Structures are given as C-alpha cells and as structure tokens.
Amino acid sequence: MRTAPEESIVDGNNWHDPVWRAGADQWITARLAERGTPVTGPIEQFRVRPWSVTCRVPTAGGWYWFKANTFHCRYEVRLAEALAGWVPESVPTPVALHPGRGWLLTADAGTTLREASAQDRATDDAPTRDAALNRWAALLEEYAELQRTLAPRVDAMVALGVPDQRPTAMPELLDRLLQDPVVRADLGPDRAAAVTAVMPDVLHWCEELGADGLPASLQHDDLHDGNVFASTKADQSGRYRFFDWGDASVAHPFGTLLVALSAATHTFDLSPGAPELARLRDAYLSGWPGGTAMLRRSATLACRVTRISRALAWSRALDGSALPLDDDIRAAPAEWLAELTQPDVL
After folding, report:
1. Which DSSP state fits 123?
2. Which of 47, 155, 203, 255 is deepest in the core (most CB within 10 A)?
3. How many CB atoms neighbour CB 209 within 10 A?
4. Which positions fall inside the Aminoglycoside phosphotransferase domain (predicted)?
C-alpha cells in the first residue's frame, strides 16, 4: 500500500478550497493509476461534513471511495489499515492511505444495510418487519463477535491513536469536558449544575463496569445500518462488513448499543422500552460470557457512560472543523452531556 510523501500534498482547512481539492484529486488519481485502475471521470464530493468529506471516484475498475478526516479523527486511517489485517472478513480493505492527511481510499464494497432495506421496501416482496429486525439482530451479533476477537488488540489500537475511553478514564474525561468554557456555556447554568450533580453516579457506574469482567474492545460509537455493508462484490458470504471508524474508541464494548438502539428506535418507529429494543439488545449480548442479569445491567450502564463518549467524539470532530458550524452542530458535545440526566435508552 503506497503512502505519498507528506510534503507532496497540499493540506487545507476547507473541503471546498480549490487548492485542497486539487491536491486530493491528484493524490487519488496517482494512487489509482499505480493500481492500473485509472480515473475515468470527475471526482465527486459525495458527502460533505465539517469533520470529514467522502468522494466518489469513477474508474475503469468500478467505483472507488475517498475519505478525508479533520486532524483529531485521522486515527481512522491507521485503524482501518490495522483492522484489514486483523479481521479482513469484517471490514473493507484500504487500497491507499495517507495517515498524515487523514486520507483513505477503498474500492466499492457493495450496498449498505440501509440501502438494501430501502431497495427491498420498493419491491412487491419486501421483507416483513420481523425479518428486518432479524437483519439488525444479525448485525449486532456479528459486531459483538468482532469486538471479542479484537479485545486482545486494545493496546495496539491505543498506540495507533484510537482514544482510550475505558471505564477508568471516563470520570476524568467528563470533568475535562465540564471545564471547557464553551461546553459550559452551551449547557447553561441549570444543565451544567445537573450534569455536575450526576458526576458521583458516573464514578460508580464506571467502577461497576470496570469490575464486570468483560474486556474493553473497539467501541464503534456510531453503529447503525448506514455504516455496515450488507453485501460485497468480492464476498457473498452473507457477513456484514463494518466501516466509518472516525468516532471509534477503546472502551467498554457494550457502549456500542447506545447509538445502535437509538438508530433502531428511529428506523422502526419504536417507543422507549419497546420489546423490539430488548430483542436487539439481547441478540448483541447473546455471545458474551456471564449471567443475563449482569450482562443487561452492564449494557444499561455502558449506554449511560457512552453519552460522555459521544460528547468526546463530537468535541474531537468539531475541533478544527473544515466547514462553518451550525449552532446545533457546534453545541453537540453539550447536548450529549445533558443526556446524562435523562432516562435510559432501554
């Protein structure tokens, strides 16, 4: 896998900057030419966010995808490379990368579960709601299996720059967020006081999580049906492939359920505490060692603590953003911290 010299790339702080775009396009074109898959048309900015940009690249060998991250999320590049070596059956394999710029190039890997579900709904033989829930259950079971496989690699992941957000670290990380004047201003006096008041509870939750005997692993922190491929051109095994690691951390594995269950709530139009959510949670928990009551308790606690992880992920993503920020996005770290005082997901 070829990495271009640092000095040969023009960096920028705006995805729409023509100088930055020209440098990125030049790098993409050169890397694909080296592979014998020349670019055959304009490179399109497909998804543009303040923290990342994804481009679709037409080539003689089909579509390729380029992603660039802002500075504090660039660890995704090295992590994606490492995962392709550790668990190649579960992730796309990068074809080129530039860690110093946070640039990643991959071949098209098929259809996401969200896209596949939308296509199915447009047909006369669309799957039932129960079948759609089974797909989500399989997704969560496979991701839990991936986490168990990766648990021995957590120190290697931290060495690659993946944030260390294991339970023992979370109380101090929460305190740092609350000391941030911008976060406190976005919370406002009342919500800041409420979050401060819950800090002793956070300490107890983290102590309990740290003592449950389950190993830390790769916590995706944004796992949903749009971040998993349902099929690939190269592999029709039926397994899912996971991607988009820009929010990921080393943490209690069950924290992955926070976003996953929230996304399922929206996808299936569920009410809080719906039995479908319990079904998905238990599918995820099914392969972990321990009694059912303990596992469910740890899942509840991990989802509470992962609200801090979400605030941290947003804080990283927005620091040095490549586009102007709307107020609702800018205040996302504070909004996630405020969730610490709200009812549990399940």
Report:
1. S
2. 255
3. 24
4. 74-289
Q: Which residue has 């929206």 as its token pair?
A: 266
Question: Tokens 């928990």 label which residue?
Answer: 285
Q: Which two tokens stand for residue 154?
A: 């957590």
CB 102 within 8 A of CB 73: yes
**Alpha-helical segments (H) within 96-251:** 113-121, 129-150, 154-159, 170-179, 181-197, 199-210
pLDDT in tens, 98-133: 999 999 999 999 999 999 888 877 776 677 889 999
- Alpha helices by DSSP H, the chain: 18-34, 75-86, 113-121, 129-150, 154-159, 170-179, 181-197, 199-210, 257-267, 275-285, 292-318, 327-330, 332-338
Distance separating alpha carbons of residues 272 and 204, to the nearest angstrom: 25
Q: Write out pLDDT tens, residues 159-217.
A: 999 999 999 999 999 999 999 999 999 999 999 999 999 999 999 999 999 999 999 99
pLDDT at res. 13? 62
Q: What is the DSSP string of 196-215?
A: HHTHHHHHHHHHHHHTS-PP
What is the token pair recorded at 16? Answer: 């729409």
Which domains, ranges and CATH numbers included, belong to the chain?
Answer: 6-108 (3.30.200.20), 112-341 (3.90.1200.10)
